[in-house]
User: Fold this.
Amino acid sequence: MFVYVFKYFFGLPESVVSVYRADDSGPFPKPYGCSNVPAEERIDHITHHGFLRALGGPGLMPTTRRYMNALTARMEEKNLCGEWTEMADFSSFFQDIVGFSLIKCLYGPTMLRLNPDFMQDLWGFDESVPWLARGVPSFIRPSAHKPRQNLIGHLKRWYAYAREHFDPSTISPDGDGDPYWGSNLMRYRQEKLLAVKNHDDDVLARMDLGLAWGAVGNTIPCTMLSAFHIFKDPVLLQRVRDDVESSFGSQHLLDIDPNKLIKEHLLSSIYAETLRLYVKTYFMVSSPHTDVHLGRWTLPKGSIGLMNAGVSHMDESFWNSRGGEHPVTTFWADRFIIDPTDSQSGPVAPHVREFPYSVEPTGEHVDKTQSTNKPFFSMDGTEGSWFPYGGGHSICPGRFLAKSVILFTCALLARNYDIELLSDKVEMSSWRFGLGVGGLKHALPFRIRKRNA
Assistant:
C-alpha cells in the first residue's frame, strides 16, 4: 500500500520505491529476525519512529500548543467583529484557518512565508489525488499533476533557506519548535531520511508533501463537519458552550491544558460520531512472515486483506440507534455517551454488548475525577468496529494531534463566535471514496460574528 501511494500519489521514482519494497524489517526498533536490511535502510522504522515521537510522544504537547496559538492568531487576522460577515463556503473557511494553522505548527512560519501559494497548491493536490490514485498520466490530465510539482518546488526552496539560516539557538524552550524548520519532526526527517539510499531533496520533498497532505486531508473536513453539526443545532451548541464554561470558566483557551480538553465528554462524543459517520477509508492489512488465523478464515503470509471503515461504521446490527430513533446514517451527538441511569445509552446496541456497560468510566480519554453518576464519554466495546485511523502498528500516528485539533477548534469557535449556516444540510461527494472523508458536493454559505466578551 505504501509503495503504491508513494509511486502514484507522490511520484517517487522506481530507484526509491525499490528501497521501500526491499525493506522487510518492520517498523519496530528490533528488526524481524528473517530480515537482512541494513540499519540505515530500515526506512519503515526510521519514518515510523519519527512520527511516534513527534505526534504521540514528547513532541505532541509542544505541537498541540503551537496549533492552538496558530489558530487563535489566524482567527484574529480575520478581524471579525460583532457584526455579521457573510462567507461563501464553510469548507473553504476551515481549509484557510485550520489547514493553515496545522501546517504552520508542523512546518513553521518560514515555509509558509517563503511560499504564500503553498496552501492553495496543497488543496489543489488534494483535489487531484483521485486522478493520481488511478494512475492517470500527466499528458492526459496535466492539471492533476501541476499542484504536486508546485509543492515540490515550494518545499525545496524552503530546505535551502532553512539550511542557510537555522541555528540550534533558535529552538524554542520546549525543545521542539523553531522558526525555520518548524518542529523537531522536520529536523529529524532532514537528518535521517536524506541519509537513506537514493534519497535526495526531490525525494524528501515528495515525502514531506505526503506528510502535509496526510495532516490536513481528513483532519480539516472532520473538523468542519464537527463544527457544522454543533452550529446547526442550537441546543447542542449551548450544551457545548456550557461544558466549556463549566470546565474552564473565564480561563483563556490558550492557557488550558490540552490533556484536559480531550477528556471533555460531549466534545469527544461529537468527534467520535463525526469520524464514525463520515470516514470511509480503505485499509490494507498483511502479515509478511506468518499466516494469521481469523476464526474460520486464514490470511496467508504475504497476502493482502482489504478493509473499509465505512462498512463497520454503518453496521446497523452493531451500533446503538436507541430503538431506531437515531439511525446509523444520521448524526447523533450522544451516541458515545453512557448515562449510568439509562441502560439504552452508549455506542453499542444493547443486544450486542458482551457485558453491561460499567458505571465506572474507563479508557484513555476519561477523567477519573468526574463523578460516576454523570453521563460520560466511552468507546467501550467498539474495538474492531470504529477504526477511522486503521489499526495495529500501522494505525495513524497523527490521531492524537487530530483529536486535539478538532476539539480545540470547535471549543474556540463555540466559545468566541456565532455562526449561522445558510443551508441546513451537507451532501458528500463519492469521488474520494476510500481516501477518508468525501468532500462537499456544493458550497456551504454561512455568516459569522464575534461574540460579546
Observations:
- The longest strand covers residues 282-286.
- The CA atoms of residues 128 and 143 lie 8 Å apart.
- Residues 2-86+105-216 form one domain.
- The two ends are 50 Å apart (CA to CA).
